[in-house]
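Structure tokens please, single chain.
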Amino acid sequence: MKYNVICKKVELSDARKEKLLDKVKKLDKFFDGDVECKILIAEQKNDIIMEITFVHKGFVFRAEAQNKDLIAATDDCLAKLDRQIRKNKTKLAKHLRQPGIGEYDTIMDSFESVAEENEFNIIKKKKIDSKPMTPEEAILQMNMLGHNFFIFRQADTMKITIVYKRNDGDYGLLETE
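Here you go.
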């Protein structure tokens, strides 16, 4: 397990950091093997904003909480993550056991601006790992992240595909040619 604690506008003593990591390590029971955990702590308008992200076998588990107290924010995040993992445990176990899904090549996709810098104001660039999966797995991953869309590679064709949540509650699929 690899932990990365990032503090923005917040100072944490070693004792508080250890207490925080002890709480987060309680979720280790759900994961086997190599897991990355990123903990982001920031202060905004006298509130502590905490984001905890676990990456395990290509799946991302993420929770965010806001509270005046660091420990309360940590507990809120951990409760959300615990609920997420337990809710999707059987679905994830089923998908991870399917042939062809276990091992995959990591492909880094980056978003680049085609237009000139003056035309569009890009405030964030993000690189993502994509792994071959089915649209059902992508919808599961999108819902776990709490996003409205998710980019992935089709398991059978290796084409880049986007699944998105429609306003009517259904899902849409955009496939590349």
